[in-house]
Amino acid sequence: MVKTEDISTMAEGWREVFESSRLVPPHSQTVRLAADSHSSRSHGFQLSLSRLTAAHRPESQEVSDLEQDLTYQLRVTLFDRNHQHFFGKTWKSPPQKMKNNKISFNEVLYFHTSLQLPSTVVVLELVSLSPRPDGSLQALGRGFTVLELFTNKPEAQAADGDRRLNLHHGSPRSLLHPMLKDTVDYSSILKTIDGAHLICVVKSHPALVSMMHLLPENVLVSGDENIPGLTASAAGDALLRPQLLKMLPFTLNRLTISLQPSLEKFESQLLQLINVDCHNTKQPGPEGTSRTVVIQERRLHVGVHNGWCFLEKPQVVVLEPFASGVRGRADSASKQSTLAKDSSATSSLPQMLALRSNLEIRLTNHQALAVIFQLEYVFSAPIGRETMLSATSTPRAAFLQCLRWGIWCPFQDSADWKGEEIQLVLQGGAKPNPHGVMVYSTETSAKTLSPVPLSAPGAAQEVSEAKDMIMFRLSSSLERKASSPKASLRTKQEDVSCQRRSPSSPSKGQKHIPPASPPESPQGPGLSLSQLAATSRYPTISHSSSALPWQQSFPSLLHPSPLASAHQLSHVACSAVSNIAHLEMDLQLDRDVSPSAQDEGDQLQELPFTPVHAPVITLGMNAPSSCSVSSRSSLAHLHSAGFPDIVDCRGQVAEVLDPTEPVPFDPQREETDPLQGNLLVFQFLAFTRIPTAGVGPNWPDNIYFTFQFYRFPPVTSQQLKLLTGDTVQQKAGDPLPCVLASINKDGTVNSGSPGLQVQFRVDESFLRPREKRWFLRYLALHTMHIDIWDSDSLLLIGSTAIELKYMLRQGKTAVQALHEVEVLTTDYVGEDTLLASADLGRRTASSPMTVHTILRGRLHIRTGNIGCPVDPGRRRAADVMSSPSHIITPRKVTGGFRGGSLSSRNILQLNARNAAQAQRLQIDQAHMPPFRRGIRADTIMPAEHNLNEPDGGRHKLNCMAAVHQREGKEDAKATKVTDQTKEARLARELQHIKPFEERNKTEAIANMLSQAITTQHLLYASLGSAEYMEFVLKNPFNVPQTITIHSDDSELSVITNIEEWRYFKALTKTPTSLEENMFHLDEGAPGPRVYLRPKESIHIPLKYQSFLCDHTMALQGPSFLPTGKSSEMAKKNLSNIVAAKTIKVMFKTDDGKPVAICQVNVEPTPHVVDQTFRLYHPELCFLKKAIRLPPWHDPSVGDPDARSHISVRCSDPNIICQTRMLVPGEPQDVYLKVPGSPSPHIKMFFVMVFTDKWMAAPSQIWQIYVHFMERVDVSCVTGQRNCQSLVLRGKQAVRKVQCFSSHPQEIEVDPKGVFVLPPAAVQELQLKVQPWRAGSRFLYVNAVDVEHRRLVTAWLLCLSVHRPVLSKAFEVCVPVGGGRGSSRKITYTNPYTSSRKFLLRSDHPDLLQFKEDKFQIGGGESYTIGLRFAPSQSPGSVEILVYVNNLEEKTEETFCVKVSYS
Q1: For the CA atoms of 554, 559, 564, 566, what is the dihedral angle to 10 degrees?
Q2: Which residues, at least 6 apart from 430, have a Cβ–Cβ distance to it below 8 Å?
Q3: Which of 19, 190, 486, 862 is geometrically suited to a Cys-Cys bond with 168, CB 3.0 to 4.6 A?
Q4: What CA–CA distance (Å, rounded) separates 649 from 415?
Q5: What was the pLDDT predicted at 949?
Q6: CB of 502 within 8 A of CB of 512?
Q7: What pLDDT is stored for residue 2 in this prediction?
Q8: 176: helix, coil or strand?
Q9: How far apart are the first and last CA of the chain?
């Protein structure tokens, strides 16, 4: 039990902050004016005070001696000149000396205010401080000045820039003079001090938005001010970029309040005093009418206060009287009647106030943070002067009174209060309190106690020592188990019924008085939303349940720019598995629910669970380090390898940039660079192996890379050999980097220059208009994700990312940078389980897991950018190219039929343009018999005939004869017939052709007319980006028309929402008019309809946006170079882009005739990939993952309540992708549900994350690969070999296959080498699994076609490894340092009667070596096992397991040796 006696002894840290943070509130009328004039949101500002120049004084010895001890101070206060009211808190600067008539302050102040009115100004006073004989300082005003913050426009921010303020004579109190009440310009009245001025800078500071809840409004503070809840800054200015401490959820339960001498007597005496006070202020009445005021409700306010303000609005809960020691509920009627009776008629058991349910609060680890409790009673009193009337006929009113308050600082002392009952003394009387209210006096209560006889001093002493107490327990919500759903439902129902029941009153017709607390205050504890009990992100942090949550270090969250790349890797940025509770159902029943509905059954509540596969992928963790850790010998080894240099266009070596230093980015310099072409070079130089558990020291041997740069096609490199220098002596602690060399298709190493070089040319021919700026921004803000693969096993080694900002030339001819980045991957490990535990074989999905980050190696890569000149003519053409307009205006002159009558002139003009050679009609063979060939048409003479003449048929016959004549020349064996036969056949053919000719004529005329009203528009579109356009629609008729707009593709739609239309117009800066309620939608109509007046033209807003794209991808495996090619080649696969298409938008009248057609030709362009994820999952099963988004807050908004509208879309319609908007402060996840595929299929898709409401452009595009593998569950024991059979089925062709495992030292595959897999054959594989670490793990086995380097089948091994049963335990002490280890012996006796051979194994071969790895002893004989422990350079302890195995690697005995290094 933790007992707190006095508030003054335990809240010193909080009280110190609280006493120094008292402030004067602003004028109430000013607050109302600010709320009425504009938004009442508070905005942050920064005020920099540079220096003050004083008036020049003549130098004299007397003046110099007098001012030698003088120091000067600047005092800053907010002032309301409309009401002549100082408010806020006066800030005082540290004393400064004057040097050369100048005082340098160099102070930066911060404040936030919602009073953005011209009347709000800042008053700055210069004060001189001189010492007094008693040691105190005498302050004397030396002048003041006024700084105006806002202009006459309330919405205008404070003007940025330097401000030069002249000092005035006198004191700031002169501003309170009546003459200055309505004065706008003080300089015209106040006298200026010549030569005295202050230099300051005032500007907005949006970064304060994140911490406004920690600091009240209108308070001027400096960056080093003590603000609990704010992380201290190493630079001293914590408010420049505020970082908040981690807020953790806690549960407050079993809360009770005891009042002295008892609850009944306390409330009875309280009512007596209130009634007496009420009757003293009213007209006297007859006796017997004294107790007319009754207690209506007992409330408790609970809030978290940091000395400045409440971090959140205090919660308001209702307390109920309970009998001490009895958990049953007290009856309300008897409770109220007891209060109305005499104080002597009390219950047999003492009563106290209690909170029936739990209360959720959020705390952070700071010694000045306090939990404030305020006990408040709601009283009901009659209204009116006639107190003789009964309470039933008198209207009543409620009023509030604070009775007690208490404060508890949980982090003030080091006492462990977790799980203990906390007793806190409640205070009363006239003391300052955080709520700023008057509190019922404790002394008054003591005077009204029951009289005690003078002969009993002990009793009186006992009463005087009794104190009002509040008792409760506080526990972390992260460790609290989920309660029973039914019990939670019952508690909620009781709380609701408690709040609904009218408080006791002598009358039955009394109306219910609603609580006087604000509407947004909760009336009682409710279920919190999505409580996340997350363990530490890093595996090095302790996960012990005995440690309090604030004892762990929590890294800061990622705050990426919407265009910045979240380059952290998916399998690197996996947080430790958390206990996740989905959004809980609100179990509080509405007041309208009928009793029958409540009897149907209790609503089930979701319980926390932990899936086996870590479902949450957290962005912004474990970024690959790019700092160089190689020794000079390693760098010399790389330099001597002979890599090609990166040179500029003149042959000079490119300038080298240091990747550890920041790079300045000036977009103007990049755009004005005379070398507008860019040749971007990536040189993959070397790879440094890092020893990893489970693999050999020479792994990997061959690798290849996959990556994608900007919107170029994805790149898959060829195989690269890791060359190790034989002549160089390598140290174990400093492995040399292995130089990369490309491998030819025949397996030989390329004799060309080492390394791999990939180039990308970006010039005017590649970039679209206005794309250069986006490309430069991509280089400045993004990183490029690189996957490194083992080209033998096709297993992922790891991933890394390099920053592209070092490829910005900034006016230089060429730049280069050498990067050494870490290649990281992750390993999922579950908790250890004993072999003999009762739940063996019954492991569930709730087993917790930990994600370990593994360093697989370091990649040495050189990036460069070479400036290239461009063709001047091409550059000028690109420069003068007009920017694409968003307004589509129909052409006035078209290339088709111009309209009008079908006169001879129009037909001749049309025929002149459409002249072509006559061809045979392609007529349906089912309706037209085949034409016979061989008819000679030499005798048919062509003649000119008008088509409108009656004998126009002769002209048609002549045309047909000409066609047959041309076909007859091709057929030399045509049958000869007479002219009469030819005439008859041509006539029959003409009869068949007439219907088709009439139909084709109608279609030709309709097509000609549609071409005349069609306007074409070329559109460049990328995945997820919305393209906005406006089509100018004109009514060509002299009568009004109602036009229906129909698009033949759903991806091109009409914007009918006025807010969306306004957003896109502002985004594209389209200067056209905006009209509300322009469209009306009819149910069942093909599209929206719009009304047009005669000859009226309007702009129709259109939007094209596609979320679908092609998902074809290259086969997994390295690419092969043609023979003789250099190493500067790499295979570039086809990029996944949206499909090219032509979309027509028809504008039709009511009769269905089109008046205009807009044909949009969509030209696809690749998109930028910001993040790449690779996930592994069992085949034919749904993959369910959650990717955690970082806090996406835009500081430029300046609104602390503003929340980003985060929405997601997926490029595959068969994949479910969604996110949920939660309350502020809760983590937001993107949920994925991917249907399974057979092994080894890889499914690739894109996820687009939008942070704007109308999804104009994705802020992030993620490329997600899901590798589906055959799942194999293996249960085994550490140190013991377990065999598992796998089946490999052949495909259509004969293949040469070899199997590889991700951990060769723990998994052996039989057969080991290459074997032939015939078509449709079945090959049995034998897995020999011998793990050395306990817990749940995931390993991989690949079957690879060694000829084509293609994946045949992949297996996902889900290991459940248990610890063995220990036979003996030993303890050894090994000295630290000295370079010498320690030797020990263990005696082992053969338990068998016959001679046996045994093998010795250890789970830490680097720490323990055996004298002999195997031995043979006879039956019943003993053998001494020699142990050699390696030395250690640091103290600590470790447990090493020694396994005695037989020849089949089955464990006979297991010894545990605890080694203590001291």
Answers
A1: 30
A2: 438, 439, 441
A3: 190
A4: 70
A5: 44
A6: yes
A7: 62
A8: helix
A9: 39
pLDDT at 54 (0 to 100)? 83
Whose tokens are 């008008």? That residue is 946
pLDDT digits (tens, 9 = 90+) for 1160-1174: 999 887 788 888 888
φ and ψ at residue 282, rounded to 5 degrees? -120, 175
Looking at mean pLDDT, say which of 361-375, 507-521, 581-595, 980-994 comes out highest.
361-375
pLDDT tens, residue by residue, 1387-1434: 999 999 999 999 999 998 888 999 999 999 999 999 999 999 988 878
Residue 428 CA: distances (Å) to CA of 432, 445, 529, 603:
10, 10, 36, 44
d(CA 1442, CA 698): 26
- The string of DSSP codes covering 509-528 is SPPPPPP-S-TTS-SS--PP
CA distance 660 to 882: 41
Tokens of 1342: 């690949």
**C-alpha neighbours within 13 Å on the C-beta side of residue 1071:** 0
Which 3 state secondary structure label does DSSP give 955?
helix
Helix (H) or strand (E) holding 595: helix 595-598
What does the pLDDT average to over 1350-1376?
Answer: 90
Q: Which residues pair with 1228 in a beta bridge?
A: 1189
CA dist., res. 243 & res. 211, Å (int): 8
Using alpha carbons, list the distances in angstroms from residue 1019 to 196, 885, 921, 1062. 63, 10, 36, 21
- Answer yes or no: is pLDDT of 221 > 60: yes
Top-confidence residue, 517 or 348:
348
Integer angstrom CA distances of residue 718 from 65, 740, 755, 795: 83, 11, 11, 15
Q: Given a cut of 80, is residue 965 above it in pLDDT?
A: no
Q: For residue 1109, give the DSSP letter.
A: -
Question: By the 8 A CB rule, do 1352 and 1291 touch?
Answer: yes
pLDDT, mean over the chain: 75
At 1320 the three-state DSSP class reads: coil
pLDDT band at 969 (very low <50, low <70, confident <90, very high): low
- Say what the pLDDT of residue 625 is: 57
Instruction: Scan for tokens 């048929």, then name that residue.
Output: 953
Instruction: Check the CA dihedral 917-922-928-933 and report its sign.
Output: positive
Task: Please give the Cα distance from 281 to 1334 (Å, whole number).
Answer: 80
Are 522 and 316 spatial neighbours (Cβ–Cβ below 8 Å)? yes
Place of tokens 């200015």: 237
C-alpha distances in Å from residue 209, one per residue of 200, 226, 352: 23, 18, 43
Residue-wise pLDDT for 1267-1287, tens only, equals 999 999 999 999 999 999 999
Report the 10 Å Cβ neighbour count for 1329.
22
Three-state SS at 174: helix
Residues with Cβ within 8 Å of residue 592, at least 6 apart in sequence: none
Among 809, 857, 813, 802, CA closest to 682: 802
The per-residue pLDDT for 328 is: 41
Q: Which two tokens stand for residue 1226?
A: 């809760």
DSSP secondary structure string for all residues of 1002-1062: HHHHHHHHHHHTEEEEEEEE-TT--EEEEEEEE--SSS-EEEEEEESSTTEEE---HHHHH
Q: Are 641 and 685 in contact (CB under 8 A)?
A: yes
Cβ atoms of 377 and 269 within 8 Å: the answer is: no
268-307, pLDDT tens digit by residue? 888 888 888 877 765 444 444 445 788 889 999 999 999 9
Pairing of strands 469-476, 1171-1178: unpaired
Residue pair 867/812 in contact by the 8 Å Cβ criterion: yes
Most confident region among 508-517, 688-697, 1405-1414 by mean pLDDT: 1405-1414
